[in-house]
Amino acid sequence: MPVYPASLQPLAELAAKIRTPDFLPAFGRLLDNYFPGINLAVFFYQQDQRPVTLVHNLSYEQEIKAIFALDKHYQDDPFFQFWQSNREPNLKTLEDVITADFYHSPFYNEYYSRLGLYDEVMAYFSLSEQQCIAVSFGFYNHRKRCKRDEAFELIVYLFPVLQALFEQYWLSSSLHDNMSEGEPLYVSNQFAADILTERERQVVQLILQGLASKQIAGKLNIKLGTVKNHRKSIYKKLQINSQQELYHQFWLYQNQEQHNQWVND
Fold this sequence. Notes:
about 260 residues, alpha+beta, Beta-Lactamase, 12 helices
């Protein structure tokens, strides 16, 4: 028997938030409403760049483990690897994307094993040829309020509507302009301008464009140790612990900037 949502109200609320900074939080609330008992994480994928975690319902302990694994091994994530060669809207289970040696890989040990994750489903909502929103539905042995098969059926049911909503959100957002296909990420020098020094903002811009510390040192003609010191200072001032969190803060900033522009217009 097909699985249908008990109410369409969360979906209606999400549609009403397309042109506001609350769209992604509203999407998080929709996921919690429709998929109770499942660990959820929403990622932004962009070609040749680290995935950005946008929304999640992980515990603090799980979040720390996930950030560590994704920062270190994101290129080994089978779902990220699948997207690199398959850019269409899609829905995949872990079994669909893994190779024979997956359960012996560093990514499995650092991510799945440490988090206690035994299965995962990923929904890929395409934004462009180079970008997508990827929603992870994680299944844990100790969390069985929502069965995997039922969750999968509900995802399939909601998928076309969510894909359409994400397309509209993306096209109406300044992120669409600032993350143009094939171009480096544009980062306003006003991002964290009230907290960071001019040099630190330059370092942030290059980090968000995907450059490693050694590349940043060459670009700015400074020593590698100086770049590392800048990174430590940036993380401390922004009260973050990882590059993932830096991307997340930038995403939220861009959303707020877009909202302010709409209000002023």
